[in-house]
């Protein structure tokens, strides 16, 4: 939603799940492709945002960015073996950004976008649990089901 609100020429989402692909379109994606289809678009994008945090997604994101492009890594895989080859980063002259330590102006911008209605977090909340039922929420999150996107714990 935030990317679409900036009115880029296109917002391409890489998503293996058809249920989540529909959600991506609802949130502003102009095109949704599978990871296999993404391999046909190596080096095509000016800016790539990796948000899945699954093993291999950072490497794919880096390969999707054009030479001299920008890569933002927001997903953090649990597997310490996940890596982007240094030679690729150097050879393609990518500028890499991460989300930790974002400046206050970034948070101010995000809050402003919520305030003017450009961001609707309700679109991605697929499950709600009472705070006392946090274990069920975690079990649902870890289930790997396609219909689970974000879970809201309600006090």
- Helical run tally: 7
How much helix, percentage-wise, in residues? 25-40%
Radius of gyration: 17 Å
Beta strands, count:
7
Structural class: alpha/beta
Beta-strand fraction estimate: 15-25%
- Low-confidence parts lasting 5 or more residues at pLDDT below 50? none
Instruction: State the separation between the terminal residues, measured CA to CA.
Output: 26 Å
Order the strands across the largest sheet as they lie in space.
Answer: 3-4-5
SSE string: HEHEHEHEHEHEHE
Largest sheet: number of strands, sense, barrel closure: 3 strands, parallel
Averaging pLDDT over every residue, what do you get?
90
**Global shape:** globular
What do you see in this structure?
By secondary structure, this protein is an alpha/beta fold. Helix content is 34%, strand content 23%. It has 7 helices and 7 strands. The strands form 3 sheets. The chain has a 3-stranded parallel β-sheet with strand order 3-4-5. The longest helix has 12 residues, at 104-115. The protein is globular and about 50 Å long. The mean pLDDT is 90.
How are the secondary structure elements laid out?
Layout: H1 2-5, E1 12-14, H2 18-26, E2 31-33, H3 35-38, E3 45-50, H4 57-64, E4 65-73, H5 86-92, E5 95-98, H6 104-115, E6 125-130, H7 134-142, E7 150-154
Parallel strand pairs: 1-2, 3-4, 4-5, 6-7
């Amino acid at each position: 939603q935030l990317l679409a609100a900036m009115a880029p020429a296109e917002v391409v989402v890489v998503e293996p799940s058809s249920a989540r692909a529909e959600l991506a379109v609802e949130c502003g994606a102009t095109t949704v492709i599978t990871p296999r289809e993404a391999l046909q678009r190596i080096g095509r994008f000016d800016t790539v945002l990796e948000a899945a945090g699954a093993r291999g997604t950072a490497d794919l994101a880096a390969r999707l960015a054009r030479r001299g492009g920008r890569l933002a890594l927001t997903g953090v895989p649990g597997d310490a073996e996940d890596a982007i080859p240094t030679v690729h980063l150097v050879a393609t002259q990518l500028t890499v950004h991460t989300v930790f330590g974002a400046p206050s102006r970034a948070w101010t911008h995000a809050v402003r976008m919520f305030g003017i209605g450009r961001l609707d977090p309700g679109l991605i909340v697929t499950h709600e649990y009472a705070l006392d039922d946090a274990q069920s929420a975690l079990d649902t999150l870890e289930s790997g089901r396609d219909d689970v996107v974000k879970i809201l714990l309600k006090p």
